[in-house]
Write a structure and sequence with these properties.
The protein contains 2 helices and 4 strands. It is α+β, with helices and mostly antiparallel strands and about 110 residues long. The chain is elongated and about 70 Å long. The N and C termini lie far apart (about 45 Å).
């Protein structure tokens, strides 16, 4: 998965923070099938620091999470937590759709047999 980092109006983003984001997105991206890329935006707006993460996968909506805090560390943690919750929801929905599809196919095959 390709990860793109943007720093808009952000004073400094440490290498440690970028590494932490990279490792977390690799872990999260493995849970969403066919993840193509991720965009991480760091923005400083006065005393508030914001981190926005967008994951893109083919044939799926973009999954976007936003975190805010006094520094980039807590903002990144909040955004990653929101992203993990959204991925879990997407996976549950995918499983529900697959079960419904299998049930329809079984019903069709029972009617033709």
């Amino acid at each position: 998965m390709r990860i793109i980092f943007h720093a808009h109006n952000a004073p400094t983003v440490s290498e440690r923070l970028l590494d932490r984001a990279q490792e977390a997105l690799d872990r999260i991206g493995a849970r969403l099938p066919r993840t193509r890329d991720a965009v991480v935006r760091f923005a400083g707006d006065g005393p508030v620091r914001r981190v926005e993460i967008a994951l893109r996968a083919p044939r799926q909506r973009d999954v976007v999470a936003l975190g805010a805090g006094k520094s980039f560390g807590p903002a990144l943690t909040a955004a990653l937590a929101r992203l993990e919750a959204q991925i879990a929801r997407v996976r549950r929905l995918d499983a529900r759709v697959r079960r419904a599809r299998v049930a329809r196919e079984r019903a069709r095959s029972a009617l033709t047999a």
